[in-house]
Structures are given as C-alpha cells and as structure tokens.
C-alpha cells in the first residue's frame, strides 16, 4: 500500500515538472504558468497563460498584464471544450495555485483533483476548490525521489 502511494506521488511530481516545462511556452513576461489535465494516466489537455487565439502574442502593456490574457488552467479547460475528450474525474497539474476565476472553471469541468506547485498569497481559489470537494494538493516539483523503485 505504501509503495502504491509513493508511486502516485512520483507520477504527480513528474507531471508537475512537465507542467513547469510546458510553462516555458508562455510568451508572458511577468509570469509563466503551465497546466496539464491528466485522466486515466493520459495527458488529455495542456495550457499556458497567454492571449486568446488570433491576438498578438504579447501579454503585457506598460508592464501590466492585459485583462484578456487567459490563465493556463483556463486555456487547458477551454481546449478540452473544443476536443472530443472531457475532464470528468481528471487531475489538473498547474505550476501556480489557481485563482478564484480558474477555480470556478475547474469545479464546473468535473476535475476532481488539483496538484499545484507554487503557493500564492491569495488562497480564495484553493479555498473554493476545497469547498466544492475538489482534492487540492501542494507539491514541490523538485522534491527528491527518495523511495525505491
Ligand atoms: Zn487563474
């Protein structure tokens, strides 16, 4: 049983690191966030923060993030809306703790678990997720893989 748990933790950490690599796709300068949606051990969607399709790839204006920039979670979830997949019962891996707006989308999209890597001073998003029964876990993606196999 203990082995089983550590196996899941290893997978979680790897997906979280993948989300961090995915964040490198973001052309936003102030902050780069990456997200992956995983269901039945398959990555069914991905996202990073950025402007909507068709808009120029510039997130900031006078060093302030434009109001229409989509967060990584919102991009991953809306990408699913255009696919034949669905996020019911899936896990979202995201490099930063979700804001309240994204948390609403996460709840409505049927995501059951959120693993995030970076804490934010505001906890209203995480609080809302927990209130809705979504399992929320903070993990340090650089945590050493100490256990065997
Ligand atoms: Zn957000």
From TrEMBL:
Q: Which GO terms describe its biological process?
A: pyrimidine nucleotide metabolic process
Q: Which residues form the CMP/dCMP-type deaminase domain?
A: 10-129
Q: What cofactors does the UniProt entry give for this protein?
A: Zn(2+)
CDD domains assigned: deoxycytidylate_deaminase
Q: Name one GO cellular component term.
A: cytoplasm
**Which keywords, in A-to-Z order, does the entry hold?**
Hydrolase, Metal-binding, Zinc
Q: Name one Pfam family in it.
A: dCMP_cyt_deam_1
| UniProt key word Disulfide bond | no
Q: Which family does it belong to?
A: Belongs to the cytidine and deoxycytidylate deaminase family.
Could you identify this protein by its name?
A: dCMP deaminase family protein
Organism of derivation: Segatella copri
Read off the lineage from the record: Bacteria, Pseudomonadati, Bacteroidota, Bacteroidia, Bacteroidales
